[in-house]
Amino acid sequence: MLISTILKDKGNTVETISDSMTLLEAAKVLDQKRIGAIVAVDDTGELCGVLSERDIVRRFARNGEKTGDMPVSQAMTRGVITADPAEDVDTCLGRMTDRRIRHLPVVDSGKLIGIISIGDLVKYKIDAVLAEAEAMEAYIRSG
């Protein structure tokens, strides 16, 4: 299955924040949206980083109370690893596992079109295995 299909199934709404927003403001967005990571964009709207709950916790552990006033740009992950909508699930799962990341922004021709989590991909894999098992069971019963 292709990443584009997963985006169609889950929806391709992608939340973004400004890289100049404070970490406290960003944490509130993560909490309100019930998400674990968010794409950061610069003043031109270009993808410039990903901010995860982990990034915030690390900054808080290092800097204490003053962390909330820091800009997202000081905590986000730069050099963002992305997925292409034409890639398959296994390729992206491998990339996420190798790089130890849990979220991949999906970019098509330089434009941000969605974000996938490792949970999205694992759900697809589980659903595929269950569907295959049901098909085998139906085949065995019919024959």
Any guess at the CATH architecture?
A: Roll
Helix count equals 5
CATH homologous superfamily caption? CBS-domain
Give the tally of structural domains: 1
Are there runs of 5+ residues with pLDDT below 50, and where? none
Per the CATH scheme, the topology name is: CBS-domain
The structure class reads alpha+beta
Strand order of the largest sheet: 1-2-3
Residue-averaged pLDDT: 93
Order of helices and strands, N to C?
HEHEEHHEEH
Strand content: 15-25%
Span between termini:
29 Å
Key attributes of the depicted protein:
alpha+beta; 3-stranded mixed β-sheet; CBS-domain; two-stranded antiparallel ribbon; 5 helices; 143 residues
List the helices and strands and how they pair.
Elements: H1 3-10, E1 16-18, H2 23-33, E2 37-41, E3 47-52, H3 53-63, H4 89-99, E4 103-108, E5 111-117, H5 118-142
Parallel strand pairs: 1-2
Antiparallel strand pairs: 2-3, 4-5
Helix pairs in contact: 4-5
What does this structure look like?
It is a single chain. The protein is an alpha+beta fold and 143 residues long. It has one domain: CBS-domain (Roll), CATH 3.10.580.10. Helix content is 46%, strand content 19%. It contains 5 helices and 5 strands; from the N terminus they run αβαββααββα. It has helices at 3-10, 23-33, 53-63, 89-99, 118-142; strands at 16-18, 37-41, 47-52, 103-108, 111-117. A 3-stranded mixed β-sheet has the order 1-2-3. Strands 4-5 form a two-stranded antiparallel ribbon. Strand 2 (37-41) and strand 3 (47-52) form a beta hairpin. The radius of gyration is 18 Å and the shape is elongated.
